[in-house]
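User: Could you check the structure of this?
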Amino acid sequence: MRYRVLLFLIVAGLLPAGAVRAASTHEWDLCKDVDSAANASAGIAACNRILSNSRESRQNRAAALSNRCGLYVTKKQPDLAIADCSQSIQLNSKNSSPFHNRGNAYYDKNDFDRALADYGSAIRIDPKFPASYNGRGNAYRRKGDADRALADYNTAIRLDPRFAIAYNGRGIVYSNRNDRDRAIAEFTLAIQFDPRNAAAYNNRCDDLRAKGELDRAIADCTVAINIEPTAIRLSNRGLAYYDKHDYDRALADYNRAIGLEPSKERYINRGNAYFGKKDFDRAIADYNAAIRLDPKFTIALGNRGSAHYQKHDYDNSIADYSAAIQIEPNAPRLVDRGNAYREKKDLDRAIADYSEAIRLNPKYSTARNNRAAAYFDKNDYDRAIADYNEAIKLDPKSTSYYYRRGTAYAVKGDTEHVIANYSELIAVSPRSGAAYRSRGIAYLFSGALPKALADANQASDLEPKSAYHALWLDIIGQRNNVPSRLSQQVAKFDMTVWPAPVVRMFLGQLTPAAVLAAADNADANTKRDQLCEANFYSGELALRKNQKDDAARLFKAAYTGCPRTFIEWDGANGELKALGVTP
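Assistant: Sure, the predicted structure tokens are below.
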């Protein structure tokens, strides 16, 4: 959610030369101070006193009304401003100031056509006043007429080459065109000519964030906040902190922004920061707040659905996704709902959602990939492979698609295609150790031991910190009768986390029973995965010791307990076939 800031110049109505004033100079000075938000109330009071004086001339009353109009614009009271400027125009239609100020008021009401008409009138009266061109440029920009907006900003700058707010407006146009560098250059000029221009700092912050220059973005937003801490500026800095995954600082900024000016967007942003911290209950509370402000806010509904999904509350997740889809059907949200159905093992509904997502966006590779996964879960491997093929055509650099297609080929026992799949992946990602390891394992079970060893060595050399690569190199190396490198490699591993117990078992420091005990975990999925690996690698150790019955038992346990997407499942399947044991 991006927040842009533009600027207006509010002008004071001028008294005719030599005009006789009943009010004091001090009163008029207060009444003319239309740009000061801090003094706006005092200025309005001064204008009121001037207007209540029956001795003031028609021209003076017109000027005071125009000034009070400008002060009401400053105080964000556009209806009162319009009434005053309209009266001023009735008293003196040859003064550009009330037309200009009324244009600002109409702009604040999003009545851009009336704003354009008033800026046009101001320009006809005073064609050399740059602020009216800037105001009209802002209105054209909001109407989507970027070319006319640029023409007006250019004229304003030609009339006053140091007119900072016109550079700011021109920067917004370039930013909206995603021409970040040009936008940043314009905001920099605005800052050069007005170092206190908080809006330009804020806008430059936004474009720097879009370019990924987060530290520079935060520095600019901080300057803007120091000049004047507004909700928009705090929100933008919060977004930059969020992009850095500095969720605590992001939350601090969002809290201040919401305290100043609550909005559905700011609740969404804060909810996303809580989501990033995995504090899903607080995220849901903020999404609830956004939905209360706008019950049809599909982003909030979708994000709340994702928070429920992370909590494994798939029914509420589906309810939120369904509400969002009903309001605004789109492919990503259908995929989200399909994922929730897949978690509930409702594969037909999941496939239906993925299929509808593909219909809405045939080039959405994620929908193809996820439908393939659902077909895989249904044991329909041919359809799964067909979808992975399409996903790879759409996004040939997405390495995960190759791994999943390789798994589907492996489950079918199609080793030739497994090897071809990983060879294709290696061509796309030649520095991927995991790709070499996967192909090496396929070579191992196809009987091509030298090729398996070459790939296992390459995997371990590319990613020497991977304990899994080293374990497979040890397994494949032993089959090739080469000395183990594991004891030399272990210094590069993090031996405080799994699979450290497996490594210690291979080094003779732990028993298989101890490894099984170490695999226990409070999280059910983590326990399943670690038990899978403990059984498989214990089976490999038993096989190395020629304890074939124990090996077969452990491989069967791995075959039964491992997710089929795990390389250990594929390994257990291959080893059981080599032993002549039916899984």
